[in-house]
Amino acid sequence: MLKQGRLTPLLLYSLCLLILLLPDSWQQMLRYENSAIENGEVWRLFSAHLVHLGWPHLLLNLLAFWLILELFFLANRRLTLRLLLLALGTSLGLLLFSPHVGWYVGFSGVLHGLLALALLDRALTSPQSSVIMLALLAAKLLWEQLQGPLPGSVSLTQGSVIVDAHLYGAIAGAVVWGLERSALPFRNEDPE
Q1: What is the per-residue pLDDT for 159?
Q2: Which end of the chain is more exposed for a tag (fewer CB within 10 A), N or C?
């Protein structure tokens, strides 16, 4: 039997693979498009993060997801809710603060959020290493806002890199972490 925390990653991998095999016209119905969302197609707030530009983009995102889960032991019963909140936060950030972004696909915004959440969580038990890694994440996000995508990232993904999604994902990760921390005193269960 598959452990509860491992079902979410398996489902996510499967959905991303299946969506990449769909015809382009179907994939376009799932991607983030600000005008379509404003016209009521709210599923795009979530589905966009499962759509990818191609195999290299998908493999990079899934590898990063696997690494974050393994390094920070995040495959637990809260993972599904965390991912949904990070996807929503990333998409709403794009919608509200980056109206110039017409469309977006990929999991990188959610990954930045998951990494921020994991590092903030780890800071409670390993503050020195976590602060260094949080500083590196902040430096990366600042670089992207000032200079654009990191060198080589466009060629790796074979398409545009929407750096605003990374920023909004990281902010969403910090917000989710804060919400979880504020809710912990009221829970009767172990946080993991």
Answers
A1: 79
A2: N
